[in-house]
Queue: 4 jobs
Job 1
Amino acid sequence: NYQTIRLSEARWFRGWRGDYEDNDELSLDYRVLGAWVVGRELYPRVDRRIRLFTGPALTFERYADAGSDKGAEVVLGTALDWFQFTLPELDLSTQLVLFPSLSDRRRVRGKFNIALRWEIV
């Protein structure tokens, strides 16, 4: 997962997102996603960031038993980053992203990531 954004003074941002994944349990050899995203940062503070974003995406997939496929999707997401700069330092990041398919209306994928870094000593 790679994402780059450019934030404007009005708290709107634009950028792009790239994902790569594979999954042996689903017989997914690979899935590559490229998306252009726009969004808004809500309630900006030094110790907290909340972002909502959306945009169009293209996916390229290859399954071991079903061959290759490509499609168009929409990216709908939210991200929350929370920082504590006093000791002990804390960094909590979460991201929920949904990928409704435009090619197959019945298909919706989703991802939820959470990362925590807490300096104890």
Note: The radius of gyration is 17 Å.
Job 2
Amino acid sequence: MKLVSVLHFPEFGGPHNQALRLSPALAHHGVESTIVLPAGPGADRLRASGLDVRIVPLGRVRAVPNPRTQLQTLGRFPLDMRALISLYRRERPDVVQLNGLMNPHAALAARALGISVVWQLLDTRPPMRLRRVMMPLVRRLADVVMPIGHGVARAHPGTEAFGERMVVFYAPVDTALFRPGTPSTLRAELGIAPDAPVVGVVGNVNPQKGHEHFATAAALVHQSFPEARFVIAGQIYANHPTHSEYHRRLVAQAESGGLRVGQDLVFLGARRDIPNVMAAFDILALASVPNSEGTPTVILEAMATGLPVVATAVGSVAEVVADGETGFVVPAEQPQIMADRLTTLLSDRERRTQMGTKGRERTEREFNLDRCVADHLRAYNLAIEHRRHGKHRATTHG
């Protein structure tokens, strides 16, 4: 089986990580994967890992109010369609996979050639009005829809109408790479004492991650645990005006709350050694805002590492974090509640250990790589079967 997976974002993120973990495992089941995306850090990292990457300068819908930006995306649309159709004709895929709701180019190009389409819904970032606009197009073009969790499915009206052709999945986790007891060099790198508590976040520095709420929670926790250290690992977009300004505001906010940036709160920037980073944490926190996440991979990676998780109730998070058992699920944009839960865990090492153990067990049982591979294989076969025998009849690849 030949798969072409189209990603519209150049920065390395959740869909890129999914491709990185899944492609080699799918290959053992006879699926040959080609990843199509714009040039950038995401493509560089995937190619360096040995994956088959094709660079196409795809436009994408941006969450910015500037009409010029959106007009530029619209103006690129015919170019993107021609590029994708040309690529499909060369690669002759059995299935095209879209990674996200808002960029339909890959599905329209696949439909023009009669190729099966699997459309993944990976987050809740688009406003509901846009989801309502886009979902009829998804229902028309997709043979199979794959929401990342039932919460994401419910957030996209019409998804459940796919019936058996809705294949719910969760991000793949390499439980051999992320595991308890892994030695870490991060504490020595940052000068953190072996017994100092560390609360960490893994997430690019942009507003949807809600880092400002984490910074507020950290300042509150620091009043009770002055020895605690707080770490944010994620890309800092120095050349992106909106995101760089967001970072500056975060630094100012943390300092005004009494945190010494670079000591009490450390911004690591982008890291490729996330297992090493995460192994230095005592707790993983994630303060994502509403209309943002699906099921963040880092939550499952933290659970696999044996860490308790304190995360906001967005997307499908509550499906993977068992509240009170493997961590705590807290309301979004309520840093006082997050601070209370973090304080509870920092005050009770035994409870942290128990939650971490249960999180590891749950990840091995429910969110392992083999299960994710099986979900994708089922989706691909359903899509091919639907295109062959359903209302979308295949035409020649050209």
Note: The longest strand covers residues 32-37.
Job 3
Amino acid sequence: MGQSPPGNSYNQEGEGTPLINGPVEFGPSAFSKTVRSKFTTAPKKFCKSDDLILCVRGSTTGRMNIAGFDASIGRGVAALRYPFCQNYLNTFIHAKREVIFRLGTGSTFPNVSSKVLDEIPIPLPPLKEQHRIVKKIESLTTHSRKAREALDAIPPLLDQFRQSVLAAAFRGDLTADWRAENLDVESGEELLRRVEEERRIEWEKFEFNRMKARGKTPKNSKWKERYKIPEIPEVSNLPEIPSSWQWVKLSTLCIEIGDVDHKMPKAQSDGYPYISTKDFLPSGAIDLNNSKKISEEDYIKLCRKISPEKGDILLSRYGTVGEVRVVEDSQPFQASYSIAILKVVSKDLSRFIGLGLSSEILQSQIKFWSRGVAQPDLGLKHIKEFAFPVPPVAEQIEILHRAESLLDAIMNIEVAYKSNESYLAQLDQSILAKAFRGDLVPQDPTDEPAHILLNRIRTEREKTQKAKKKTKRKKS
């Protein structure tokens, strides 16, 4: 067991003995060699090169590495040495790392004592069989490691493919053949005029209902004069799009883009869901069941400003920026200040705009206008100014059909990837389980029996203990 040297003996200038205190000195994987990070001029306990270094304190209990050099060991680790087949011990301890963590006493700061380590039972086959077991495990895990490396290459490729699909969809490449066969679609100017007309009609409905909810039923139509037609965005720095498409500001496609007040309402055990970005599930859904809950009074108060409804789009705008979700059901809930609520002109546009906001064309604008580094913040005024490429309705439908078919295929590959990843983990555990119950390699009756090996281990321990006592007597 390690023992921490005096704090004033530590240094990083290489004076004295290298010190191994824990994961700071560990290499990247369990069987990596330790690295030199700090030194001590007053070492207390020691390990030798190739000893197994095991974490025995705190949340890292059970993690291990191989000593890359003779060193001093601090109280956060223990050194385990087996003079006959060290790799057998290393492999066994690695297989039991979670068991070792659970053996630690203390709920907030686990601590594995020397007594606990001493009592861990280890199956002891003949020495030659230990070597065969290690060799077989190394052979099998080499194959599984190569399979894992191949699997690990899949998620980045899927992300690239997903972005390629969205980029092609929103610059017109995905439906180039469709346009060649459908020349009678409306022009960009006609499209823009129709979108603006629809927006005004829907804005008036929305604004009237909002005033009514606030108890301010209008007596005349003067309130309609507040309506503003969004300007056409500056297109000189924007990518080229098909002539039948039109660049518009995102606010042109929405009757309202807003959020709730910054102040967080008091959470309670039940009530209306109050979601934040952490409730955006990787599947694209929104987790309303496990979100915070607020009272009906707070829910109604927040809804006076804006509230999410089926068909609205949610865009994360604080902390985690740029995540997009479309509200798919009618269950009432409220979204926190960290989420912008986009009420689109037509619910038929929701999925199309949601895809567009996830594309590089819009994500680059999101990144550009986000302020801050530790906690990025995207202002509503910038969201309203985003330039969005809009094709004719018939082409929107075709884009949705093609893009979603490809994205569904990507999702199916991801499901298969996760299944195979889980299978590999189970396979590795199965290999280790078979190894340490004697089923992985054949037994050889000519091997020296394990009880003779055990006597040799005891003899070796007695020699080591006598040498330690002799060393202590000399020092005293």
Note: DSSP finds 13 helices and 17 strands in the chain.
Job 4
Amino acid sequence: MKKVLLVAVVSLGLLAGSVSSVNATSDWGDAIAIPALIGLNTGSGAQGNSVSCASAGNCAVTGYYQSSAGDQGFVVNQTNGTWGDAIAIPALSVLNTGDDAEGTSVSCASAGNCAVTGYYDNGEGDYQGFVVNQTDGTWGSAIPIPALSVLNTGDDAQGTSVSCASAGNCAVTGYYDNGEGDYQGFVVNQTGGTWGSAIAIPALIGLNTGDDAEGTSVSCASAGNCAVTGHYDNGVGEQGFVVNQTGVTWGNAIPIPALISLNTGGFAEGTSVSCASAGNCAVTGYYSAFGDGDEGFVVNQTDGTWGDAIPIPALISLNTGGDAEGTSVSCASAGNCAVTGSYRDGAGYQGFVVNQTDGTWGNAIPIPALSSINTAGSAAGNSVSCASAGNCAVTGFYTDSPGKQGFVVNQTNGTWGDAIAIPALIGLNTGDGAEGNSVSCASVGNCAVTGYYNDSSRLQGFVVNFTSVVPPTDPAVVLKFTG
């Protein structure tokens, strides 16, 4: 009898149109403090830096907290929809004798199989990079990135980004100091569960005559097929580069095609890369146009060939204040991507989104409704994740009269909804300093966001989930669905 009643209620809801859609703001749950992180965070602050979801309700977050000794790295998992307790990254404190460590990036290939990278201080003011893996739900011990210390004779290195194509098959990029105050970029791969040795990004040192290079972002479409973007200094200014790994072999770094011609002001960088399949990637970032300020760009790789960088369409017309940037890109399939970032107009800094559909970039638009909550004039889209073409989510921040707040916005079937304040985060954020740092969508209607808030005494980390279950509309399927 209970099942019959359930069918009737569901059917009536469908007829009345009362079933929530994937775009409904109610599908975002309430932000919560990362469980147990407040207990670890006895110092002045903590935050979630990066989130990755392998499947609906199975995610991981990394970041940092401050103990009485100093900054430490943490990880926390969501399993079957429930967030567990944050824990100190195992064995990182043994490496981190200088008490300044952080998990900067996490990537999960499947539920319970993730990797984290970041940095630590070895006690002599020397910063080194680390990696740590979770295997079948258990976090192993953090280890120094193999061979990175050999490159890092200047004692300033960091793993900035990690991407895992499958369990035990990952790549990390970042930077190191070669001992002469010259910063260079590196890559390192994990293959079959074993981390290889870090290497200087091939040919990047030759480009980097101004001695300031970094790998900022990595994306792996399949094991051994990855791409990295970042920046280097050619002696005239900062420029952007890309480099691909194909069939486990890293090729030579190249300047992002046509970006130097846009970058007349000499300040450019590839900030984010996303690969939908091997040889099909997209990069976003920024460049400086002499006399006009900073602008955002996009560039695509198609079937293994990088095209020319172009200004993000229509962003220049929005960016009347001359300070724009593409901060994050996500590609759900080849030629179907989304970018978010920021620009400046007469009212201040605003957030934008732009989509590529079937290989063609549309026009950048202001994030819908963000300006209405961004009353103090400082907002940005920090991170975007697309579960399928036209189904994406963005997080970031805006400012109002009390202070800084976090927002989320969803795109559903190609249409962007309205930005909303992250539910319940304002209640946690009594110190008026919150931000959504990272978003990951495992499937359409199943996403997670992490970031930070200020509870009036210190910064704390939060997580929030978007969970939308839309029942089928065919009555016969409904009967089957409900038993």
Note: The two ends are 11 Å apart (CA to CA).
